[in-house]
Amino acid sequence: MDSQIYEDLTPILKRARVVFILAAIVFGIVLFYYWKIQILDYKKYWGQAESNRTRDIVIPAPRAVVTDRNGAVILANSIASFKVSILRESTRNLEESLQRISPLLGLDVGVLRQRVAKYRTLPAFRPIVVMDNLSLENVSRIEGRRMDFPELVIEAEPKRFYPFTSFGAHVLGYMQELTPDDLRAAFKDRKVGDMAGKTGIEGAYDARLAGIDGKIVEVVDSLGRKRDELERVEPQQSPKLALTIDFDLQAKAEELLVGKEGAVVALDARTGGVLVMASSPTYDPNKFINRFTPEEWIELVKSPDNPLVNRAIQGQYSPGSIFKPAMALGALDLGIITDQTTFFCGGVAQFYERVYHCWYEPGHGALTLPEAIRQSCNIFFYNLGMRMKIDDIARYAGDLGLGQKTGVDIAGEKTGLVPSSDWKRRTQGATWFAGETISVAIGQGPLQVTPIQIAAMMGCIANRGTRLRPHLLLEEGAAPAASPGKAAIPASIFEKVIEGMWRSANMEGTGRGAKVEGFDVCGKTGSTQLIGRETSERLGIKKKTHSWFAGFAPRNDPRIAIAVLVERGGMGGETAAPLAGQVLKLYKDKYDRPGTTQGN
Amino acid sequence: MIDRVQLREIDWVLIGLLLANALIGVGLITSSSHYLSGNFAVRQMIWLLVSIVALFLTLSVDYKVLLGFSPYIYGFFILLLGSLLLFGGAVSGARSWLFSAAFFGGQPSELAKIGLILVLARIFSEFKRRTLSLPFGLLSAGATGLAFAVIGLQPDLGTAVSLVPILAGALVLAGLTRKTVVLLLVGTLAFGFVGWNFALKDYQKKRVMTLMNPGQDPRGAGYHVLQSKIAIGSGGLTGKGFMKGTQSRLRFLPARHTDFVFSVLGEEFGFLGVVFVFLAYFLFLARLFTSVPKSRDRAGTYLIFMVACLLTFQFLVNVMMIVGLFPVTGVPIPLLSYGGSSLLSTFLGVGLAVNVKMRRYVNV
Questions:
Q1: Where are the domains positioned within chain B?
Q2: If DSSP states are collapsed to H, E and C, what string results for chain B?
Q3: pLDDT confidence bin for A153, thresholds 50/70/90
Q4: How much is the pLDDT for B92?
Q5: Considering only CA atoms, which of A392, A371, A560, A374 is closest in space to residue A488?
Q6: Interface test with B, best of A12, A54, A125 (most B CBs within 10 A)
Q7: ipTM > 0.90?
Q8: Which partner from A292, A406, B191, B305 sits 20 to 30 angstroms from A388, CA to CA?
Q9: Does residue A227 belong to the interface with chain B, where contact is any CB pair within 8 Å?
Q10: A390, A421 contact by CB (below 8 A)
């Protein structure tokens, strides 16, 4: 029976058994060899293990140089510096070791403990930096006592250096030490304790600036002394990075903002390249590069005037009267008015049973659109607000780039806000009242813009509808950054508004302070109330308004678009316009010579 | 598909030993990779769960059915690996890795081993002569050679080499006459000697060496082996303690959690640890070998035996390699080294053995 169901496999099973027995014998022999290595030769290998360890030392790549648009002025550089780290695996007792190191470095034991605790999750063979920016004196002192402190290693580290201290601080950004959390998030190929760009250009182009670290593999003995070098890979610095920033213009703008709180943004009207991005107050990014001055950092963060905030892209303000060109464009495009339509300004007027004032109490009399822009008449624009729907206003404002990020290539940009009936329903669950449109018509109400949005809007108006994408990276030889499209308003309508803006600067309008001889500046001022007129009269407080100027030049073939905001600077014509005028004049003096053209 | 008797006949001891060794592996991977980023131990754990599920799923299919499909399974892997060569080779190595990762989350060549085992068992299932015949010898060698070529060219010579014990196991069972053995040995040696000394140029030899061991240091042969020996030797009798090895986590060992995971064991747990794992692994392999007769037919015998040969070969080659008793070939230890597809293919292989055993009674 069996032989029919089951095959006779006896011979092959015998062969299988032989193989098994052979395998078992090999097992035994191999195990015997392990016994020889681990028990008989234990001492020999233990000695070799102690004397024959390698250590990887990273040679950090110097960060790429950052220059201004002409490539000549270095805004950020790398300089040599030394840091000392503790190797926990070379300590017998960490606490004891910290106690001994403390007087050598002149650092409080508490500070040392904090440092080590912060990076305690790192494997013990990874050095933890305990002090950087060592003086040469300190370097030689520590090196001289190498035998007493085997747990300390000194490494050279190229350090970021900003030669013009706070120049362009908000554009360049700052660097900070990476924490384990950072590594999990964005900086996957970096190491804990590395310095990395956190904001601005340093943050946005961190990978490009960082370069490729080199390394040394060296054999060290159990005391951490170098015995041999096995391998050396030199670090690679990335090629320099040129920004669109114009050094002279930026310096001028920053100088003009000293002592004020505000921002200046100037764009190349043809390409969107940012010529100026200044924010005040400012700070010295060199301060962040030191790993060990938390006090200064906290001071900066806590400071009531927020020096770390880049007001140019993060400050959200009421636009005030600089919103009027947007209103005018909408009203013309909708056919609500023509450039011949006249409204009468008697200094005061009533809309929806409420009294509204013009900023000019005697009243402007009867005026057409260009004149209304020139004199920044409120009553004229209240009348437009009466006749326009909020959602139409929102559409035109959006078309001009308000209420959305401009897409500038550094992080942290704010969106601003353009109210609409939908927005009010969404956020407050209420319907929009026509009466609310009146204050929006002169750029008040819930409207919020950033200076860079306004500069981009000016660029759009200057180009008669072609929008700009502001950017800071100057790509040599590359075509101008792709334009984010064209506004859906015909060029002829832009001309009518531009006429008013030209008059504002050149015909004794509110923007006359920005006039530059021979440069045909077109612009608009704004003065935004921080509290309502009635409230201020009732309380008897005279609070200064935010001062705005926005414009471009020259009128035909425009090359520069600008937005200036000075917080509590008073009337736009009084502070912001002259400030813009000085920047524009410098631009003209620098570039407006026959045969000079600048791209990007 | 499974009746109660078959359920009763599932070899839980074998499965238990398999799991125990896999868990030892997770422990070793934890110790050898805790300072690396990548959560290797967690990933291995996940692969372990996947492998357990896969094992039990394959148990529900009679191995005879699998043998019936074996030419297709084998053919599928040959085509897949072949197309990887065409695709990836032309563009870049990364492409082929991506391609395979997308489909397998690992290396298809590991699973191809199981395909070869199945197809060889099918070939020899009807082979009833007492010694190997030339046509069968050529057919089985051809099937192995083809797989060897497509895997070796990936290039993954470590996996390709481990196809050899599969074929060897099958040939031994089929019966080798003394003449055949001598002929094979002389042929291999002559081929290797002539090839190495006359056909290959120096730079080609170097290339072959790097192929055999991609992580090998150009500074000198044996460097890694020396470092591995130092790590193991310095472990002594009791070792330096879990996760306390000093040698293994320095940069001596190119693949501390894969090929050199056993060195970490030697350093951190000493000779006692080595003996323990040898014992655990030996019990597992012994269980496999003693299962060889517990088959109802010839094909089943071949299956279990080839799996046993494969795992024994890989274990022995690895533990010999890391102490310099065998050239460095990049063969990982099944179950102990990190690697999802290797783990899966080991489980599937042992699954085949369990499959054969549980179906060894006819018409009960």
A1: 4-358
A2: CCCHHHHHCCCHHHHHHHHHHHHHHHHHHHHHHCCCCCCHHHHHHHHHHHHHHHHHHHHCCCHHHHHHHHHHHHHHHHHHHHHHHHHHHHHCHHHHHHHHHHHHCCCHHHHHHHHHHHHHHHHHCCCCCCCCCHHHHHHHHHHHHHHHHHHHCCCCHHHHHCCHHHHHHHHHHHCCCHHHHHHHHHHHHHHHHHHHHHHCCHHHHHHHHHHHCCCCCCCCCCHHHHHHHHHHHCCCCCCCCCCCCCCCCCCCCCCCCCCCHHHHHHHHHHHHHHHHHHHHHHHHHHHHHHHCCCCCCHHHHHHHHHHHHHHHHHHHHHHHHCCCCCCCCCCCCCCCCCCHHHHHHHHHHHHHHHHHHHCCCCCC
A3: confident
A4: 42
A5: A392
A6: A12
A7: no
A8: A406
A9: no
A10: yes
Q: Inform me whether the pLDDT recorded for A149 exceeds 70.
A: yes
Mutation target vs B (from A34, A178, A217; most B CBs, 10 A cutoff): A34
Closest residue of chain B to A184, computed from CA coordinates: B37
**Residue A201 in contact with residue A171, Cβ under 8 Å?**
yes
From residue A119, how far is each of A114, A198, B34 by CA, in Å? 9, 19, 16
Helix axes B164-174, B108-124, angle to 10 degrees: 10
CB-neighbour burial class of residue A370 (10 A; exposed 0-12, middle 13-18, buried 19+): buried
Structure tokens at B127: 């082979």
Span of A31-35, A368-372, B51-55, B250-254 with lowest mean pLDDT: B250-254
Q: Which residue has the higher pLDDT, A123 or A520?
A: A520
Domain map (residue ranges) of chain A: 2-40, 54-242, 247-281+316-475+482-591
For range A250-259, the mean pLDDT: 94
Location of structure tokens 């074996």: B70
- The answer to whether B297 faces chain A, any CB pair under 8 Å, is yes
What is the signed CA dihedral for A416, A420, A422, A425, rounded to 10 degrees? 90
Among B130, B232, B309, the residue with its CB nearest the CB of A19 is B309
Strands A66-67 and A74-86: antiparallel
CATH class of A247-281+316-475+482-591: alpha beta
Among B291, B285, B359, residue whose Cα is nearest residue B316: B285
Q: A453, A328, A306, A456: which is closest to A383 by C-alpha?
A: A328
pLDDT of A599 strictly over 50? no
Between β-strands A262-268 and A274-280, what pairing exists: parallel, antiparallel or unpaired? Answer: antiparallel
Which of B229, B289, B295 is the closest to A20 by Cβ? B289
User: Model confidence over B60-106: pLDDT tens digits?
Assistant: 999 999 999 999 999 999 998 888 777 654 444 444 454 555 444 45
CA–CA separation, A293 and A290 (whole Å): 7
Question: Which ranges constitute the DSSP H helices of A487-574?
Answer: 491-506, 533-539
Confidence of residue B41 (pLDDT cuts 50, 70, 90): confident
Q: With an 8 Å Cβ cutoff, are A42 and B234 in contact?
A: yes
Fold topology of A54-242: Penicillin-binding protein 2a (Domain 2) (3.90.1310)
What rounded mean pLDDT belongs to chain A? 86
Contacts of B309 (CB under 8 A, 6+ apart): A19, B165, B166, B168, B169
Contact at CB, B301 and A12, closer than 8 angstroms: yes
Reduced to 3 states (helix: H, G, I; strand: E, B; else coil), residue A521 is coil
pLDDT for A52 equals 62
A24 has a chain B CB within 8 A of its CB: yes
Residue A356 backbone phi and psi in degrees, to 5? -120, 145
Structure tokens at A214: 């080199």
Residue A99 clears pLDDT 80, i.e. is over it: yes
Instruction: Tally A–B CB contacts below 8 A.
Output: 131
pLDDT over threshold 50, residue A213: yes
Q: What is the pLDDT of residue A594?
A: 56
Q: What is the pLDDT of residue B2?
A: 64
